[in-house]
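The data layer described in this paper is built around a simple, fixed record for each protein. Such a record has a labelled line for the sequence and another for the backbone structure tokens. For reference, a complete record is included directly beneath this paragraph.
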Amino acid sequence: LMGQRELLNSLSVPERNKRNNELREKYHDILRSENTSPVADKMFRLRRLVLDCGLPDNTEEEDQSYDVKCSLRALVWKLLLGALSVDANKYVDLVELGPCNEDKKIRNDTFRTYKNNDEFWGRVDEGKLARVLNVFARTNSACGTEDRQPSPGYVQGMNVLAAPFLFLMPEIDAYTAFSTLITRHCPRYVLSNLDGAHHGCTLVDRLLELLDPALHAHINDRICRAEIFAFQFTITLLANMSPLQEVVRVWDAIFAFGIHFAVLLVTAHVMRMRDKLLVEDKAFRIQRMIFQEPLDARVLVGCALSLVKFIPEGLFCELMTHPVERPSDVSKVLSRDYERAGAGSDVLHASGRRPLSVGNKTGGATKPQRASRRAVSPSHGTNLSTDRSDCSGGSRRRRPNCAGRVRSSAAIGAGHMLASSDKPTRPQSVKHQTPW
């Protein structure tokens, strides 16, 4: 991965522009209206292309017109989030109502957003960010159902989540995309008790214990729990990291794979620093190293994708649904799936493991699986390399879902995982261009 990055950096400007133009044409082939393929097929190709190749850098024209016209990246984000319906008149009417009751709390955060980032503040002024957050707080403060707590309207951290949208899109498009992200893809992250974000931190801890027991034990002995360092990464979907351009590239992958991918990215971020962390004994130094490590989107996404195949089915289902569903709700769905598929059958998964038992409602591994963890743990010498694949596609191995049934990997992404006709499924481990 580092060798390929050095190769890309060594390219001349004309060669780099040529590569960008070729990649941009692949996206236009998927998005143009003449393409009559089914929508599901086009969305699968789009997600696959984003995860395999990333999105091309903005052209000079797109950078100059970012506040009046959506760039290719902005359009792809809106497609992946399902945020294509923009009501400009409604937004203007809400802005004209003035600040909401939470404006003071919003203003306490907006001025600190990317405080030392001149590139961000050169494009986005504080008034624009405050307007988006005020309108969102006004329209969402009363949301809630008998199963979920109502959203408080604005919670700390939303300013960081809204910022990348405003950095790339016109204000009204940014509001629509931000609102869709919060209300449709990670509603549990903005409950008054931030339940979803805390659950995400717990999953980071469990993934570290599964994938690298030695590193987990070292960190746990000194910091006690992963939540201390993982919370701010999880609740902002890594948007609090730097540099901002790398955050944008990481969000490409998060929106393509699903919001739950952020938890895997946080886990991979820590595991990439393994050698540095294991020789450090001071808790505050470990935290500082994790917080200050610069973001490299291409390497981090490749590492996170390579971890997918090592996660047990039940734990992956919990990971996939945690931004929107409580663990108890997921357990009920898993139990119902196993009853329909025959939990006691002798059918093996493609990985050679039997389906999880119904009684194991925490999503963790059963006893036989715990015994096999050591065999697949990266800390015990396992090669985490994934299969190579080019951007144009190729043969793909189909993986079973939680109930042992085989399902296409087109279900990757938060937009598909909550369809009323679908049960939580584990997406295929995406074939990335480069191995970890």
About this structure: Residues 143-148, 331-436 have pLDDT under 50 and may be disordered. Residues 14 and 20 are 10 Å apart (CA to CA). Residues 13-31 form the longest helix (19 residues).
